Amino acid sequence: MRPEVLNPLFAEVETLDGVGPKLRKPLEKLGLGRIRDVAYHLPDRFVERRAVADLDEAGVGEQIVVALTPTEHRASRSPRGPYRILAQDAMGNICALTYFGRAAFTGKKLLPVGETRWVAGRLDQYDQMLQIVHPEQVETESSAAMGRLLEPVYPLSEGLTQPKVIALVAQALAKLPQLSEWIERGQLDKARWPSWQDALHLAHKGPHEAARDRLAYDELLANSLALMLVRESRRKRQGLALQGDGRLRDRLELPFPLTGAQRRSIDEIAGDMAQGAPMLRLLQGDVGAGKTVVALEAMLVAVEAGAQAAMLAPTEILARQHFETLRKMAEPTGVMVALLTGRDKGRAREGTLMGLLDGSIDIVVGTHAIFQDSVAYRNLGLVVIDEQHRFGVGQRLMLSQKGKRQPHTLAMTATPIPRTLTLAQYGEMEVSKLDELPPGRQAIDTRVVAMERLPEVVEGVARHVAGGQQAYWVCPMVRGSDNESDDLAAAEARFASLKARFGDDIVLVHGQLPPEEKDANMQRFADGAAKVLVATTVIEVGVDVPNSTLMVIEQAERFGLAQLHQLRGRVGRGAEKSTCLLMRSNELSETARRRLALMRETQDGFRIAEEDLALRGGGELLGTRQSGDTPFNIASLEQIQRLLPIAHEDARLLVDRDGGLDGERGQAARLLLYLLERDYGVQLLRGG
Ligand code: ADP
Ligand code: MG
User: Fold this and answer.
1) Separation of 316 CA from ligand 1 center, angstroms?
2) Which of 167, 459, 511, 521 could bridge to 507 as Cys pair (CB 3.0-4.6 Å)?
């Protein structure tokens, strides 16, 4: 249970003054559902307020400090109307200082008629008249500090304004409770970090590096700690020691020898599975590295030892593909492989459920459906989760709770993430790495092409298709971007214009299509009925159409490198030579240029991931978040690189010393885990 002291932070934002139904949506869009979220809604940057001699010098919308002399106080006729104080600058320009509601008292008191005051605030225009609404500061004398005041600039969503956010943040900060310190004294002193409460206040006030570092470190520490608790608790759980005798694996008739990396990974996995403690292992391997065979061998180990294995895919289509591949490969072994997805209904579904219960099905492949409560296994020994990055740690835990004894878990991912991030994302797992591609792979001819050459590219695609091969055409759809609907519109417009050229040979797939339509279109392409597939990034994961050997990516600079790499991995799967055209906009930043050049240069996902991190992390400004594909909201890439190793080590020390989080620091750490919603680790502790 969440410690009581945190309750005020988890109250809904609606409990703040000035938040009505109208703000609900805009706040939600920014993920600001609770007071805690508002307190952690840190500014992107700060602007300096400028002291001006008179209003002619200032622009509308600007934050200024100016000397003004009130000439008249005007109360509104309606009780809810504004209270206006007309004032003159040194040149005789008139400006209204406007107050609403009870704030009018402040104005009356601070701005007597005829006395010059220094006023700070944002200059607006209202009805042809200059005005400053709720001046932020009114002083009798100018101080240098006034002119240098910093104004936070917050990320906004439609319907929210800076002053509104500033007001909400102030309220949220006023509610911060006093919490005991979870960071180790030595680390605090060495880094000269403020307390948690001070850090939040400071981070909203100015570009305070130590404060931001501390908050980032908190997040990294919480993450590492939670992962470690998960890992420790698993280690203590009773699992099934599964010792395969090789009789099924020996019968496989693979058309190729395994690579060294594949053999090593299989040994590591089989070694884990033979232990009593449940395995928790990540198989990391680039697209095409051959993870499926490794998964099959692992599943056969389970079956040899008399248990069942289940493989979870993120989508229906992928589940089907895996099922076909595995069934074919496993044929000579005689094991029974079944498919189970949400689509299965009636008799077929009943049959599969029976088979899982009585043990006649050895291996089941499917979507989330395989873990529904209605699905019972006779003896589930291994769970394989494909494309792991789609699932958070919490979900991973839930999946593996199935069965009285914890099954072994093998997670697989093709997302090439740098070493530091592997630690952050999968810190609770052991890692096997397929760092060697099967021999004979052809390099994909990658080119960067200016957008202006679109007509040529379209003709190129037409020639390609006429030659009997297929092509992907990818439009950007950046997750969480402000203009998602614009992106979608762009993809649909591109589809419409290409449709004029390609007619029935072209299909469209994106995340907002109804699932049946999406699957049907995808299927038409997979069957070869459609020649060109226009898609947003939904095709990123898993699609396998070897005859598709051309990939066009529009506005390639808008994609993350990891994403580009995954997209490109969709081609180069057959015997034919493949091409990838990265179409770029005309205006490119230096970083964007280098990133695209890197794509041209190498096909090594791990190298791309490392250099991407360096490029993005290095070019980052203080406070810009861009943590993109990481599990972090507060820590930036640069902070992750710099602080994660320290946080990870500190978490390890704490868990070594006080694995139950019972001591003083342990208790404080519990607060942190609840505060940042990494409490799944705590739930596993007794008394959590
Ligand atoms: P991943 O899931 O890692 O992206 P797959 O398991 O789908 O990769 O394998 C990609 C292709 O490589 C498949 O056609 C597979 O049969 C083939 N393959 C796997 N291992 C080897 C190997 N050792 N030698 C040659 N081809 C292999
Ligand atoms: Mg795969």
Assistant:
1) 21
2) 521
Domain range summary for the chain, segments of one domain joined by +: 45-153, 249-434, 445-602
Which of 601, 541, 531, 533 is CA-nearest to residue 567? 541
216, 55 contact by CB (below 8 A): no
Spacing, Cα 266 to ligand 1 middle (Å): 14
Q: Is 282 in contact with 336 (CB distance < 8 Å)? A: no
Q: Which residue has the tokens 């409770």?
A: 177
Q: Give pairs for 272-275: CB < 8 Å, separation 24+.
A: 272/408, 272/430, 273/241, 273/242, 273/243, 273/244, 273/298, 273/301, 273/302, 273/305, 273/381, 273/382, 273/408, 274/241, 274/242, 274/243, 275/239, 275/241
Residue nearest to atom 20 of ligand 1 (CA): 290
Does 490 score more than 90 pLDDT?
Answer: no
Crossing angle of the two packed helices 419-426 and 209-236, in degrees rounded to 10: 60
Q: Which amino acid is at 266?
A: I
Fold of the CATH domain 445-602:
Rossmann fold (3.40.50)
Which residue in the block uniquely carries the two structure tokens 């069957």? 527
Alpha carbon distance 119, 140 (integer Å): 9
Q: Is 290 in the pocket of ligand 1 (CB under 6 A)?
A: yes
Q: Is the CB of 150 under 6 A from ligand 1?
A: no
Structure tokens at 93: 């320009």
| CB 288 less than 6 A from any atom of ligand 1 | yes
Ligand 2 centroid–CA 479 distance in Å is 23
Q: CA-CA distance, 482 to 192, in Å (whole number)?
A: 37
CATH topology for 45-153 is OB fold (Dihydrolipoamide Acetyltransferase, E2P) (2.40.50)
- pTM of the complete model: 0.68
Look-up: residue for tokens 């096997």?
Answer: 432
Domains 249-434 and 445-602 share a fold: yes
Q: Could you tell me what percent of the chain has a pLDDT over 90?
A: 54
Phi-psi label, residue 60: left if phi above 0, alpha if psi -120 to 50, beta otherwise: beta
pLDDT tens string 37-87: 999 999 988 888 888 999 999 989 888 999 999 999 999 888 788 999 999
- Rounded (5°) CA angle 109-111-112: 85
Instruction: Name residue, tokens 């299909």.
Output: 507
